[in-house]
User: Fold Probable membrane transporter protein from Roseovarius atlanticus.
Amino acid sequence: MPEILSGVLATPGLVWLCFAIGVAGLVRGFTGFGTALIVVPVANIFLSPKEVIVVIMLTGIASNAAILRRAWRQGEPKEVGFLVLAALVTVPVGLMLLDRLDTDTVRWIITGVAAGMLAALIAGWRYSRAITRPGLLAIGAAAGIVGGLTGLTGPVVILFYLSGQAAVQSVRGNTILFLAALDVVLIANLLWQGAVTAELAMLAVVMSVPYLITTLIGQALFDPTRERLYRWAAYGVIALAVISGLPLWD
Assistant:
């Protein structure tokens, strides 16, 4: 154990990884999303794409436990269940693509997905029609593929909710519920593949400390009357993360 911990403390870019996860915790606490969008582009500078996915999924366990109760009350678990059901089937497809593509290609895909989502949100795209069950299944399936390939488990579902007409409390609750469930699905698949090592698990434990603290702070700061502030703060942080994670800077 001491050897594993000392190896983790020597991880290249550990300070930046902890800083990124700390900022992501604040954003996740008051918006319900943003962890992967902020951390994945930065973490891919120092870790392989699959290592990033493992660490992100494991790191989220503690914070999910801290904010799930409130999210369950505010969200719509039945609706989220349809999204998760479809994602359960397609996550292995995303992981299969991850194994077959080279690292730079995956990083560019991550950049494209994150930047595309951010552009759609800033542009103010909205819809007013109710989503049917087949529609929910399609959205969940797309989220599963993207999540398995890039570790960005939220963009598809986040875009769906933030571009709709639902109240901010419901958006936050549903997003937290979906991301927590998809984390479990991804972890199960990664364990089955043997991708979860003791070193990565220890790195996740180290990063969980700042993440849990800042997530609780972000949740305490959450105020539904400041929806516009939260959204634009999240957009700004995501934009910085996307720019910093561009393969051009290597």
